[in-house]
Design goal:
By secondary structure, the protein is an alpha+beta fold. Helix content is 20%, strand content 36%. It contains eight helices and 20 strands. The protein has helices spanning 32-43, 100-112, 226-230, 233-249, 256-261, 298-308, 314-318, 372-379, and strands at 5-15, 18-24, 65-71, 79-85, 122-129, 134-143, 146-147, 153-154, 161-162, 165-170, 188-190, 199-206, 208-214, 268-273, 282-288, 291-292, 326-331, 334-345, 348-358, 360-371. The protein has an 18-stranded mixed sheet that branches. Strands 8-9 form a two-stranded antiparallel sheet. Helix 1 (32-43) links the parallel strand 2 and strand 3. Helix 1 runs antiparallel to helix 8. The protein starts with a strand and ends with a helix.
């Protein structure tokens, strides 16, 4: 305690194009309700003004995240990692799905915190993501036994360059729903609530579930900036209606109201269009937790890349054909390069692995302070 506040050890890290507060599982209470209260208070949620000024969040979904890391509970991994998405306007914490960008900081965090022993020039950390039950292999350079920071890996959306972190998402299909194609249909007509017309979509679950559609189907070009999308209330409401209907369709929400209140981050909504660059295969604009992403969520980009290799999906129909496994996805901040290995297995499509390069950096370490009363209320 520090006066009427709790002081909890934490590390603030950037992973890819996101930031999160990192906690060791041993530094948190066992009660999930108490943990959730800590996470909300630490990030400054809920904030009716949308800025999270009373916490460490940044007022957008990519800056309102939590990572919990501890010893692995399974023999084929080095650490367990649980991801939590915290909405800005509501005191809820969502554990469905994973964040690929934050995953890139987990390996460096684990080594620097002494959770994984590493030596030499390179570290390999096998990460068990508890949200999805999947294993992610993280490889990155070391300097004097700690994760390297400086390097020449340039990441669109991040100023400067950094040391590369290679992430391999093993067997990412069905990460949330248990099936690569949750509805067994690669393309379908999705019925929406209210007065919104039905729309043709593909729903694919690889690393995270994503509902994909032609941007033109909702009156967009697909080249809109995040600021332009943010100002288009009709497009935002249309995309949210699509997300809610898809959440119910794939069984992660019981109805549209459940999707509105409880399951707010999934599925992601990907608006697809022809790329404006010759070196890209497809252009995307992704809605994440109701907001247009400034780049693209890493899991969403990987799912789109996998879908490009799946004959019969909207993504496959719209994309320039890649000559191999590598796919270049154009997004508002640049290009995301994804290696997506897709094969037929027992007559069904199977995503063996998706791989990407990110950078990560420790920004601050110490204690994060939360009002004791907010945690005590949650325990009552």
């Amino acid at each position: 305690m520090n006066g009427d506040q709790l002081a909890i050890s934490s590390v603030y890290m950037r992973g890819g194009t996101s930031r999160a507060l990192f906690f060791k599982v041993s530094d948190l209470p066992a009660s999930e309700r108490e943990r959730d209260a800590i996470f909300c208070a630490a990030l400054g949620t809920p904030d009716p003004y949308g800025r999270q000024l009373d916490g460490m969040g940044g007022g957008i979904s990519s800056l309102s995240k939590i990572a919990i890391v501890g010893p692995s509970t399974r023999p084929d991994a080095d650490v367990d990692y649980t991801f939590a998405q915290v909405p800005i306007d509501s005191a809820i914490v969502q554990y469905k799905g994973n964040c690929g960008n934050i995953s890139s900081a987990v390996g460096p965090y684990a080594v620097d915190e002494g959770l994984v022993q590493a030596s030499g020039d390179t570290a390999t950390v096998r990460i068990h993501n508890t949200n999805t039950g999947k294993v992610i292999v993280s490889r990155f350079p070391l300097v004097d036994g700690r994760a390297a920071v400086q390097g020449d890996c340039v990441l669109p959306g991040i100023a400067g360059a950094g040391a590369p972190v290679r992430l391999s998402f093993l067997e990412p299909g069905g990460a949330v729903t248990g099936k690569l194609i949750p509805t067994d249909s690669r393309i379908e007509n999705l019925e929406l609530e209210g007065d919104w017309p039905s729309i043709e979509v593909s729903i694919v679950d690889a690393a995270n579930p994503v509902v994909m559609l032609r941007a033109a189907a909702i009156g967009l070009t697909g080249g809109e900036t995040p600021a332009e999308l943010d100002a288009d209330s009709r497009a935002l409401m249309y995309c949210e209606a699509i997300r809610r209907a898809a959440a119910v369709k794939i069984g992660i929400a019981t109805d549209a109201e459940d999707a509105r209140l409880r399951v707010r981050s999934l599925p992601q909504v990907a608006l697809l269009s022809s790329p404006s660059r010759e070196d890209c295969h497809l252009r995307v604009r992704v809605m994440s937790t109701g907001q247009p992403h400034r780049a693209t969520p890493l899991t969403g980009g990987m799912c789109v890349a996998a879908a490009i290799h799946l004959d019969g999906t909207v993504a496959h129909a719209m994309a320039r054909r890649p000559t191999g496994e590598d796919v270049a996805v154009e997004h508002p901040s640049g290009i995301l390069l994804v290696g997506a290995k897709v094969q037929e297995k027992d007559g069904r499509p199977h995503v063996c692995e998706t791989s990407v390069y990110r950078t990560a950096r420790r920004l601050m370490e110490g204690k994060v302070y939360v009002p004791a009363a907010s945690v005590e209320r949650s325990a009552a």
